[in-house]
Design brief:
153 residues; mainly alpha; 2-methylcitrate dehydratase PrpD; two-stranded antiparallel ribbon; 65% helix; globular
Length: 153
């Protein structure tokens, strides 16, 4: 199962992005960015931002809402992910998960860390975003815990 899963994910490319997937992805991304920018004003986001300031590296990515502050990609993804989810308005699906809040901050932070001559295109970003969503959805389908969520809550 794991090998098949890896082969499917590895085999995805921009040709698999239909017009409908591209349009929905853009809407999900715009929604996530909006919720994330709103979330930068929350107390929990302020706390993780202060905590993360102790980390630095040669690679850095943007902290949403802070033009003068960057972090290593791992911590930028963390802070931006907290911002997205802190208002709890980010997108969701059944069984309960928040796909874009986990995927988009990581994809953007990593894309910013690429060297200038290896920057990715918008289509590459959409593909990476959708691969992340696909991985999350398939992992949920594999999880026996996820199937029980509606029964527990």
């Amino acid at each position: 199962i794991t090998g098949n899963f890896a082969n499917v994910i590895h085999g995805l490319n921009a040709n698999h992005l239909t017009d409908q997937v591209i349009e929905r992805s853009k809407r999900m991304i715009l929604d996530t960015l909006g919720v994330g920018l709103l979330g930068t004003s929350t107390e929990v986001c302020h706390k993780v931002t202060r905590y993360s300031k102790i980390y630095n590296s040669d690679l850095s990515s943007t902290i949403w809402g802070h033009l003068d502050f960057r972090l290593p990609p791992l911590y930028a993804a963390f802070v931006n992910g907290v911002a997205v989810h802190s208002m709890d308005f980010d997108d969701t699906w059944h069984p309960a998960t928040h796909p874009s809040g986990a995927v988009l901050p990581a994809v953007i932070a990593l894309s910013e860390a690429f060297p200038q001559k290896k920057k990715i295109s918008g289509l590459d970003l959409l593909l990476a975003f959708n691969v992340g969503i696909e991985v999350q959805g398939r992992l949920l389908r594999f999880s026996s815990e996820a199937r029980n969520i509606p029964k527990r809550y």
